[in-house]
């Protein structure tokens, strides 16, 4: 029974991959190629100013002379910043994907085909959410790993030309297995963190008569506007809490490297350490944050609503 | 007792209109039922209720299940083809076949490939690049490869050419249908399905106007091409409909004495189309006018 369940879910999730190959397959591959291309172009431009590349080699030598900890920090910072571009485009793709997930087949009437299969509506909704939370991040993670390897190979060639040991300069400091494990876990934690937003968009997709993405953003933006006007008109102040701002803050926070430990910037001496990017420790912090669990409860309500509407949906 | 479809007082309202108005229905296994009615008569509403795709009031049981609650379980034994092609346009043929194979426990890939071999459909084609007829062929191949107990066809041949429509119904009859299965068909092309139907249902304004087996109908209704001099005598027998063809009066009788009619003219069995016009026709029908005159 259990294996049937997962087999069905997997078949449904692969269907999503077939439906959106550009978003889920070619975009991450494209970003990777773009980043590698960018590195090569930069190097070519660099040779215009410094034909012998001697200053670049000097820089690499400087890096290799730093302490192991500092080397690790520098290499990881580079690898994380490469991943950030992937993360941000992935978020955009997921938001658009979810807004169409329960809408597109109602619009083109193929819902009649999907509903002719012995698949429950909860299973359908689950397959869409799991695609957004696991399958798409997995596709992007594979592309990130490929890009990391390509860029490290690129760095290997450069360090060999500079007469340095690429293993001790780049490969060991990068700590790839640990780095990739943290990133993968981070993507899952981030998906849980954003689940209330994902669920809200899926919910809108399940009933919107048209333009689900506009409705999904329009409703909170509209409420935020009313809240603003109301408190400005009544008490001449900005509202204490604002639904639009809460949602934006949620999207801009969580476990992703660029969002973590902003508090450090308040103190004068920013402590440079790995916690700045992403670590097991701060993933755990996000997981045990009450805001995480409140968000999951909200997500459950919206997902139940999505299933309710999906059960009643036909072609219209 | 174990009816494929059993409905009691099945109703559905859309605002003021009653799309279904207290329909009682019993369809046993092994029948091919034609559900015939003008546009907006409630055909699609009824089919959607049966398939668990729409709400309804009243009682409804399909293969012992309540379709509004157990659509997913019901779909193991029920297949349907809606009026226009609804296969996902982005999908490739091989993807759809693979998905159906993985998601439908009663699907046979071999059977599906057997039907597709006779067509020009390629495995790598996308649905959106197929012609309308090919999409229907593909959908039909998928559906006929599923060992289902009930097949629902809502205007399955809409917009297809006549050769294809003929082949469609002969496939259905020769290769798919057996005593265990039930097929429910709605269509406007009555003359194409009438020779394959075992049961006939006329629906208008959400009510069943006629619900009989074809055998009953053939026994019950008689058409008589009346000799010109005996037209008044024939009218005295209270025909339910009268029309004029090449100057000859054709009267339709419900449960008339065949021997008596034979004296008045040439008798034969009415076609479903003629019966449809007689029972469902508008009042401005030529025959009615003449009779009123």
Can you walk me through this structure?
The complex is a heterodimer of chains A (316) and B (293). Chain A is an all-alpha fold. Chain A has helices spanning 2-19, 21-49, 54-65, 68-101, 104-107, 111-114, 121-161, 166-174, 176-207, 212-235, 243-251, 280-288, 290-312. Chain A has one domain. Chain A has 13 helices and no strands. Chain A is globular, with a radius of gyration of 23 Å. Chain B has a six-stranded mixed sheet, sandwiched between helices. In chain B, strands 11-12-10-13 form a four-stranded antiparallel sheet, with helices on both faces. The radius of gyration of chain B is 22 Å and the shape is globular. Chain B starts with a strand and ends with a helix. The chains are: A mainly alpha (316), B alpha/beta (293). At the A-B interface, helix 1 and helix 6 of A face helix 2, strand 5 and helix 3 of B.
In short:
The complex is a heterodimer of chains A (316) and B (293). Chain A has 316 residues and is mainly alpha-helical. Chain A has helices spanning 2-19, 21-49, 54-65, 68-101, 104-107, 111-114, 121-161, 166-174, 176-207, 212-235, 243-251, 280-288, 290-312.
Task: Set out the fold topology.
The complex is a heterodimer of chains A (316) and B (293).
Chain A: H1 2-19, H2 21-49, H3 54-65, H4 68-101, H5 104-107, H6 111-114, H7 121-161, H8 166-174, H9 176-207, H10 212-235, H11 243-251, H12 280-288, H13 290-312
Chain B: E1 5-14, E2 17-27, E3 32-36, H1 43-50, E4 57-62, H2 71-74, E5 78-81, H3 93-103, H4 109-117, H5 132-144, E6 150-154, H6 162-176, E7 182-186, H7 190-193, E8 199-204, E9 207-213, H8 214-220, E10 221-226, H9 231-236, E11 241-245, E12 248-254, H10 258-264, E13 265-268, H11 272-280, H12 286-292
């Amino acid at each position: 029974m259990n294996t049937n369940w997962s087999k069905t879910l997997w078949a449904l999730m692969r269907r999503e991959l077939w439906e959106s190959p550009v978003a889920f397959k070619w975009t991450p591959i494209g970003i990777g190629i773009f980043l590698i291309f960018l590195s090569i172009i930069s190097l070519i431009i660099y040779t215009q100013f410094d034909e012998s590349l001697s200053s670049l080699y000097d820089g690499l030598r400087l890096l290799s002379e730093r302490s192991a900890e500092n080397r690790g920090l520098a290499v990881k910072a580079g690898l994380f910043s490469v991943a950030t571009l992937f993360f941000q485009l992935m978020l955009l793709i997921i938001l658009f994907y979810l807004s169409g997930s329960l809408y597109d087949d109602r619009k083109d009437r193929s819902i009649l085909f999907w509903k002719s299969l012995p698949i429950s509506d909860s299973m359908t909704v689950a397959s869409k959410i799991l695609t957004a939370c696991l399958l798409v991040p997995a596709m992007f993670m594979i592309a990130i790993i490929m890009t990391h390897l390509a860029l490290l190979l690129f760095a290997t060639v450069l360090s060999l030309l500079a007469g340095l040991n690429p293993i001790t300069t780049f490969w060991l400091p990068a700590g790839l297995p640990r780095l990739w494990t943290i990133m993968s876990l981070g993507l899952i934690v981030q998906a849980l963190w954003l689940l209330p937003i994902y669920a809200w968009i899926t919910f809108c997709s399940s009933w919107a008569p048209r333009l689900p993405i506009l409705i999904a953003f329009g409703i909170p933006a509209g409420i935020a506007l009313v809240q603003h006007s109301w408190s400005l008109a009544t008490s001449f102040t900005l509202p204490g809490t604002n639904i639009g701002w809460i949602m934006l803050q949620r999207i801009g926070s969580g476990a992703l490297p660029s969002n973590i430990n902003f508090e450090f910037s308040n103190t004068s001496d920013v402590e440079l350490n790995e916690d700045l990017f992403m670590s097991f420790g701060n993933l755990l912090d996000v997981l045990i944050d009450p805001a995480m669990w409140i968000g999951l409860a909200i997500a459950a309500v919206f997902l139940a609503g999505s299933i309710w509407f999906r059960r009643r949906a036909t072609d219209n | 007792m174990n009816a494929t479809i059993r409905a009691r007082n099945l109703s559905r309202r859309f605002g003021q209109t009653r799309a279904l108005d207290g329909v009682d229905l019993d369809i046993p296994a092994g029948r091919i039922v034609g559900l015939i009615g003008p546009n907006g008569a409630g055909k699609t509403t009824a089919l959607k209720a049966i398939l668990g795709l729409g709400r309804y009031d009243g009682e409804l049981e399909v293969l012992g299940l309540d379709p509004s609650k157990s659509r997913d379980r019901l779909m193991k034994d029920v297949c349907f083809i809606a009026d226009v092609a609804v296969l996902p346009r982005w999908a490739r043929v091989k993807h759809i076949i693979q998905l159906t194979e993985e998601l439908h426990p009663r699907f046979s890939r071999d059977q599906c490939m057997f039907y597709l071999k006779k067509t020009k459909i390629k495995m790598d084609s996308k649905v959106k690049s197929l012609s309308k007829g090919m999409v229907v062929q593909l959908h039909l191949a998928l559906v006929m490869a599923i060992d289902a107990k009930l097949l629902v066809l809502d205007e399955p041949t809409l917009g297809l050419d006549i050769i294809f429509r003929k082949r469609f119904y002969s496939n259905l009859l020769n290769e798919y249908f057996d005593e265990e299965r039930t097929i429910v068909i709605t269509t406007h092309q009555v003359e194409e399905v009438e020779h394959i139907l075992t049961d006939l249902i006329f629906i208008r304004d959400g009510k069943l106007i006629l619900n009989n087996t074809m055998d009953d109908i053939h026994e019950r209704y008689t058409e008589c091409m009346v000799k010109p001099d005996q037209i008044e005598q024939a009218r005295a027998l209270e025909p339910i409909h009268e029309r004029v063809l090449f100057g000859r009066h054709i009267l339709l009788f419900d449960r008339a004495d065949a021997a008596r009619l034979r004296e008045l003219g040439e008798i034969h069995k009415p076609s479903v189309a003629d019966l449809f016009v007689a029972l469902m026709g508008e009042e401005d029908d030529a025959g009615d006018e003449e009779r009123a005159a």
